[in-house]
Amino acid sequence: MRQSQMLIPTLKEVPADAESASHQLLLRGGFIRQNAAGIYSYLPLGYKVIKKIETIIREEMDRIGSQELLMPAMQPAELWHESGRWDVYGPELMRLKDRHGRFFAMGATGEELVTSLVRDTLNTYKKLPMSVYQIQTKYRDEKRPRFGLLRGREFIMKDAYTFHATEESLDDAYWKMFNAYKNVFERCGLKFRAVLADSGAMGGKDTHEFQALAEIGEDTIAYSDQSDFAANLEMAPVISRETLASSETLPLEKKSGKVAESDDRLITACWFKTRTDTVLVFLKAVDEVNDVKVKNLLGTDLVEPLERESLLDALHPDDKILIFADQGLKGQKDGVFYNTAEDLTYINIDPERDLHISQFADLRFVKEGDPSPDGNGTIKFAKGIEVGQVFKLGTKYSETMGALFLDEEGKTKPLIMGCYGIGVSRTLSAICEQYHDEKGLIWPKSLAPFDIHLITVNPKNDEQLTLSEKLYSDLSDLGFEVLWDDRRERPGVKFADSELIGCPVQVVVGKKAPESIVEVGARKEQAEGRKEVAVETLSQVVTDLMAELN
Which residues form the Aminoacyl-transfer RNA synthetases class-II family profile domain (predicted)? Predict the structure, then answer.
């Protein structure tokens, strides 16, 4: 493609509101343009990369037998009422009403719609299992869109759904999809970790996230420094280390005011509410309560913090209060708690004796330095960008929406479902976060918009122009995608734009064109890495260079 004929509006300055490297470089390199907060147009360069990501996804989905379809983005509200998520999903769900007063949701995800499509079709075990997927624009009304494509209100997503007669069939599909996702991200060149995760508003049980490692990431990954264990911070288990009981158990005492004690003895109380209950959780003051673990312990879909400090409700419990404690308090006999409401400090607290705890459980966040849950090494933290997730949904949607089938014995049962998503536009940004330098992007060859950037230093020079035309034709005939900078711009502008765009290989036709000599080098090595080569050897040099790149 001739660059003079292509829409690539590069920018010299960094846009003021672009915080992340990917946001800055995609804007400056002419890959995207913002239309509104969290809403972007993909310009030709950016869309070429998107299509390459989609091609990799399609190849891996087709390889495991998943079929592509396309569902509408506008989803009838009735389907969301059937699943019970119309009121649960929250303000992120974009809602609209047509001229007839009928409500719709702009698809944030597709469980309801796909369940409605198959519930009258997959009505017998003979038609199972079944796997379908789509690549489609999704919508979420983010309160604070930020970091460009990483957190937008409109984004491109691949979502897949599988339907099964047995848990064993779902498990088989889950791990096939898991491995397909690994292949996708490896082929895209991402540095990533697959981590245990929470299903959140999606429902279901087993789930893994695929996290691209990046400092700008909004998720924290807990991983072992000596094994493959990795989990989202919310889901990382804590190995139980029961407190050794002191040799003497003392009676509970109250002292006026706040008494200074060692941090390890201090106990704190955290209050929550669910849709039906009030919940009190005790844990060591040096630890932080994990509300996701509390939610999972209760088996509920909603846990919200309550502003409440009194210890009296725990010492004299109300039947309406559910009381739990983190496993780290089990065995403690000398706990200390300062109750602000009374301005009293309780000492010699034995949680099992004094706090009316119904159950001890793992209810805190893991910390760096904790033992790895798999027994190998200690926990370290890293930042990640979620680019994909796989879920075992079970029968959450099929039961509520009446998606039933007849099993081999003629019994009616709900379809067992799996759900799997890849953030296509997020993957684009994650790649940019990992592949750039101070001058611009450095695309992995699997996703680069073009393989080669052919730069004619002075297109007004007939010899340079003639040689460039020949090389453009020859390299294209060899199967390389070539972007030819034939613009009548200053060399400094051309080289700056080339660094921004980040094609894997640069070929420069300059003052030695009359001698049939050009400069060739990998973008990642910058100008210092370019070397002079004779035109007759250029094809082999470029082929070898591309083979060496990731």
Answer: 38-444
